[in-house]
Specification:
Length: 222
């Protein structure tokens, strides 16, 4: 009986971890974030360091990925935002004549994201809880569970760390105009880093929640 209960607990925990990965974007978002920058870096390098060719290749690849995601049932707004980010990066690089500026949008969004997550924790509206609670249809019920609120706040710091890691790596490479290195770093710090972030934040959630807590899908509201 005890062994069966432990097995059920492990199975439920794994299901919650997988659900967290699915809710927070999964592999599709990683493809959106990493493939166009790699295409830019390759196009720029193979075309004799032409920013125009690199930007054209990146936008074309981004559009193809967008069409593929729409075919797979992705939300049009999410696809459009991803494509606009690629186009904006290409336009900025063309205007400044500095190839690394293609990645400037990503630097700004990572800095803004880190700040937003820290502010959300400070005001007791941790973004991890806001995102997961909204996607699970809980509205604000998760905030009426003090233990779950505390767990989301602590786990949200893991996401702050994710953005900080990217900035620590990206900023020196951007300053050095290291386009190829930035393209490689974009891949290394997208899906692998997101997967690690989800795993660690899930572990933090489980560590903070007591054994008798029903989990993130069932807030304990008094």
């Amino acid at each position: 009986m005890t062994q069966d209960r432990q097995t059920d607990t492990i199975s439920e925990s794994s299901s919650e971890r997988d659900s967290l990965m699915h809710l927070l974007g999964g592999r599709a978002s990683a493809v959106d974030a990493s493939v166009p920058p790699v295409a830019f870096g390759l196009g720029w390098l193979l075309a004799g360091k032409s920013i125009a060719i690199g930007g054209l290749v990146a936008v074309t690849v981004g559009a193809l990925i967008g069409l593929w995601r729409l075919y797979r049932g992705a939300r049009p707004l999410a696809v459009l935002v991803s494509l606009l980010g690629v186009m904006l990066g290409a336009v900025i690089a063309l205007r400044t004549g500095y190839a690394a500026d293609f990645f400037l949008v990503r630097l700004v969004t990572n800095a803004a994201s880190a700040l937003a997550w820290m502010v959300s924790i400070a005001v007791r509206w941790p973004l991890l809880g806001v995102i997961v609670g909204t996607l699970l249809g809980q509205r604000t019920r998760w905030r009426r569970d003090p233990v779950l609120l505390r767990a989301y706040a602590r786990a949200s710091w893991v996401w702050v760390g994710q953005y900080a890691v990217r900035l620590v790596v990206f900023i020196p490479l951007w300053a050095a105009n290291a386009v190829v290195a930035l393209s490689i770093a974009q891949v290394a710090l997208t899906w692998p880093l997101v997967a690690a972030c989800v795993a660690v934040s899930w572990w933090v959630l489980r560590a903070v929640l007591p054994d008798d807590h029903p989990g993130m899908r069932r807030p304990r509201v008094e």
